[in-house]
Amino acid sequence: MINKFYSKWVILGILFLLPVIFLLFLYPSTNNYNTLDIVQENIHEFDSLNFVNNNATTLENNITILNFLGDDPENKLTSVLNLKELVYDKFKGFKKFQIVTISSKNSEYGLKNVKKKIIQSDELKYWFFANTDLKNYRNIFESLRSKNDLDSLNYSSQVFIVDKLKNQRGRIDDRDEDQIKSDSKMIGLYSYNSILVSEIKKKMNDDIRILFTEYRQKRKGNFNSNIRRLDNLESNEKK
User: Fold this and answer.
1) Are 152 and 180 found together in one domain?
2) Are residues 103 and 211 in the same domain?
3) For position 46, which CATH number holds?
4) CA 117 and chain centroid, separation
């Protein structure tokens, strides 16, 4: 009888302590995660953009996914559809999240058709479409850090993450564990190829989640991490 009594309390104690121990293990990991690096600052704001249906927005105070469709948007539909299915549908409910798609000035009709093709399944409340003159278009693109230039039709398959302070986010070091062990040269990831589904799923979506975690922790007042900046890293290397 006594053994049964003690056994009962031991079991209850274990059941009580296990969740507490589990949470204690989780606590350090949620407060010491790797933040998303700042790879470029002062991204060019959306001055002089002609937004479709006058539905305008800004970079400031928003978490923005930015992509460039160039002179012939309708022929770049794969890029937009991938963003719709793999990114927009996952994050459209998050606070201050938006996608902004920009094309060059003479492509307004094509841009509107692109929007029509993807709006059939969604109201696209957090997706903005705009065009602008070629100079402004290139100024915005060139303010971003990218390993790839615009093509002959001013298109880029690369998409960019920009935070609320107009900083471009990415990875200063994108090496995997084997590359780090072999001491291979550091590889940066500054933008994401919208044609490569695997890159969007495995890297871009993870990085967007990390950025949302950062802002969520800031709101709670328990964000305590120095975000790495590529410019600072490069300056130190030159010394």
Assistant:
1) yes
2) yes
3) 3.40.30.10
4) 24
Which residue in 56, 60, 47 sits closest to 132, CA to CA?
Answer: 47
- Residues 57 and 61: their CA atoms lie apart, in Å, by 10
Beta bridge partners of 98: 64
Confidence of residue 230 (pLDDT cuts 50, 70, 90): confident
Based on its alpha-carbon atoms, the radius of gyration of the chain, rounded to whole angstroms, reads 22
| CA–CA dist 98, 187 (Å, integer) | 28
Beta bridge partners of 50: 131
Task: Let me know how long the chain is.
Answer: 239
Q: Is the pLDDT of residue 235 over 60?
A: no
Q: Which CA distances in Å does 34 have to 29, 203, 214?
A: 9, 14, 10
Are 68 and 102 in contact, with CB atoms under 8 Å apart?
A: yes
> And the tokens for 71?
């002179």
Q: How far apart are CA 118 and CA 122, in angstroms?
A: 7
The CA–CA distances, whole Å, from 90 to 57, 66, 171, 226 equal: 20, 16, 21, 28
Do 232 and 168 lie in one domain? The reply is yes
Q: pLDDT tens digits, residue range 107-149?
A: 999 999 999 999 876 789 999 999 999 999 999 999 999 999 9
Q: Which two tokens stand for residue 129?
A: 């479409």
16 and 127 inside one domain: no
The pTM score is 0.83
Cα end-to-end span (Å), the chain: 76
Query: Identity (one letter) of the amino acid at 86?
Result: L
Do 20 and 118 have their domain in common? no
